[in-house]
Design goal:
With 457 residues, the chain is an alpha+beta fold. The protein has three domains: 5-227, no CATH class; 232-304; 307-456, Histidine kinase-like ATPase, C-terminal domain (Heat Shock Protein 90, 2-Layer Sandwich). The protein is built from 14 helices and seven strands. The strands form two sheets. Strands 2-4-5-7-6 form a five-stranded mixed β-sheet. It has a two-stranded antiparallel ribbon with strand order 1-3. A hairpin with a 3-residue loop joins strand 6 and strand 7. Helix 2 (29-45) packs antiparallel against helix 3, helix 3 (48-84) packs across helix 6 (140-155) and helix 8 runs antiparallel to helix 9. The chain is rod-shaped.
Amino acid sequence: MKLSFKDNKVYVSTLILIFLGFLFSFFTQTLWFNVIVKIREAIYTGDSGHLILASAYSSILFSIQNTLFFLGTISFFSILKKKYQLPSIRIDVLILLMFFILNRIAAFLFIIPWEPVTTFMGFLATFILLKERNCSFFPFIQITIVSIQVFFAFQWLNVMPIFSFYQIGQSDIPISIKVAGTYLKAESVLNFMGFSFFLPFTFSASITASLFMSYAQNILILEENYKKERDIQIIKSKAMENRIYQEINALAHDLKTPLVTIRGLNSLIALYPTTDKLMDYSDRIESAISKMSEMISSFLYGTSRQRLKVEELIQYIQAQIPIEDETLKVDIDLGNDLPELYVNKVRVVRALINILENAMVVSCRHAFKHIRIKVRMVEDGVRIVISDNGIGIHPSELENIWEIGYSTSKTSGLGLPFAKQIIEDNNGTINIESTPEIGTVVIVYFPKANNIDTMKS
């Protein structure tokens, strides 16, 4: 199995950590001598404060060395486990053996004290603490913070006379501290200070590990949510592409009408070769071609705008109402003196047809599905109100109806977002009001052409 660049970096980090562990042991030989000096000062002065300092120095030296070897060991075996797919129990035993061997070699080479019991206890507590919280989630710095707290806490047990019976603190330095404590009658001070450091640091390590784990899990959840959101956006994008494809199909269907007209008129030309008839048919053919060209341009170029009478707009919509549906009743109420609009005719018609189709497919508890289209001139534009007597939309669902893919009637959920985008692109607005069991009202507004001209100027 070939190792990745990342695995090679971990191997290098492992060697560096183990090397630093031995280097630390080498350079701290003089520091261990300073611990002995502190013990002597405590005896000469009768001040137990020097014993506490000596205890702190020894605990710090032990914990740093243990932490370096611990980090190097788990880094090495994390790659080994990945490479050879070894069982977790076997890996755990190998980690423990390597950790102890490294500490023992350092103690032998540099003639420094080591405590097998508290070292084992500290290792076990650290390993369990990280193992239960899945240390694979933890970055290097977080494992370091947790492990050094645990090792520092357990090394204080070495200087506590109360634990001497359990073979804890049996190397030269801890024994010297406890003997000096007995001489100064400060056993209770050493026991109290030991517990004062052991309990808070153990508790702190546990809380720190839990916080790091919670943070890591939150990061994973955020990454999963981001991935899901990205997938949803891709689905929505594909859905909108599919909607555009459907609109193109609808446009192709609309284009058939002028093409049929052209074909029919050409047939008539062949039957009536007189000049007057030819001119009449030619004019009608030209009109049909112009209409078809206008429809294609309007659809292909979304920014194109034309002046359009509201009556013509409603006629296009009315042509889409299925007259064969006997359960559907559509009332159209046009106001007087309606102004012209300045919009993309084809796209706006498609948007309003989408709204109308939504009203036609919605569930209805009445014998007839009644749709009303009311058009009125307002102060600076035209308001088109499309209402139905369907089952309505619950207030909690109203805020979601503009989302792509969201639907309350088992449709694609693309019609309303598409309509909203087209209407707003043409300087219009759309609002929806709905009452459950009564019906839904869609209010569309477009500014009149004169207002658009004013804004453009």
